[in-house]
Write a structure and sequence with these properties.
The protein has eight helices and eight strands, in the order H-H-H-E-E-H-E-H-E-E-E-H-E-H-E-H. By secondary structure, it is of the alpha/beta class. It folds into two domains: 2-70, no CATH class; 75-247, 3-Layer(aba) Sandwich (Rossmann fold), CATH 3.40.50. It starts with a helix and ends with a helix. It comes from Streptomyces lonegramiae.
């Protein structure tokens, strides 16, 4: 009985902000805020009926809403940033064929769009840019941009290429920023429209303050010829991204609820 009471209290506390509803952001209208509030209540009611457990329904509905319905990252004005991070999205198969495990993919049109977005931000304020190599390629070749630090894939002694995950990129940048005079600083994150929320969260998870640049629209035109199947169409990519977010949420919850293992 004591264990059940404790679990119920934890679940209810976690879900309280969800049920009250967050204050509308600058882009929300009263109508959309009201619709969100109704959706949240309906989600809890539906899960409670299915699970026969209101406390668990309240907690889980909050996580489902966060991962499945909220795709907007935290933003900040570019004056708040010390550097930019640009995360790649998709690629194209090697132009001349060959073993794809040992021949670099082509950067692809989606990464060119991301480079264009970085250039728009840099036009407002010159900041060092840590960019995955697919984006760095366009920043240097198309824009002749200075202060670009390319984050490259890992190439083994036998030539085998290991492309970095979003977290792998963030980890490399965090390590590089440790030796920066003045400390790690705050990152302005550029990423694909449906990827950027996770990019910001992943950057934060590696110990860097991170926000999307306020007032800039992230690209969202999918490439049906992408070398990564999950980045060829939006519905498939959203499933991929939600899966990654759930993995992050699971790790976070286990660490928070059972910090001693």
């Amino acid at each position: 009985m004591q264990r059940r009471s404790f679990a119920s209290a934890v679940s209810a506390a976690a879900a309280a902000p969800f049920l009250m509803g967050a204050a509308p952001s600058g882009g929300d209208t009263p109508a959309s805020a009201a619709a969100d509030k109704r959706l949240k209540r309906d989600m809890v009611a539906s899960l409670e009926a299915e699970l026969q457990d209101r406390d668990t329904a309240r907690a889980v509905a909050a996580w489902i809403y966060d991962i499945g319905f909220d795709w907007t990252p935290a933003t900040a004005p570019i004056g708040a940033f010390d550097f930019l991070i640009a995360y790649a999205f998709g690629n194209r198969p090697p132009a001349n064929g060959g073993d794809p495990t040992k021949v670099l993919a082509e950067p692809g049109p989606m990464n060119e769009l991301l480079a264009d977005t970085v250039a728009q931000v840099r036009a407002k304020r010159t900041l060092p840019v840590y960019a995955q190599w697919e984006i760095a390629h366009f920043l240097t070749e198309k824009y002749n941009m200075s202060q670009v630090i390319a984050i490259n894939p890992v190439i083994a002694a036998d030539g085998t290429i290991t492309y970095l995950s979003t977290d792998g990129v963030a980890a490399q940048i965090a390590e590089k920023r440790k030796s920066t005079p003045g400390g790690v600083g705050t990152a302005g994150v550029v990423g694909w429209r449906d990827h950027i929320k996770r990019c910001v969260l992943t950057t934060e998870g590696r110990g860097m303050k991170a926000f999307a640049p306020e007032g800039f629209t992230m690209p969202d035109t999918y490439d049906p010829e992408s070398g990564q199947p999950w980045t060829r169409r939006r519905d498939l990519y959203l499933v991929h991204d939600m899966n990654a977010q759930w993995q992050m949420k699971r790790t976070e919850l286990v660490a928070r609820m059972y910090p001693n293992g």
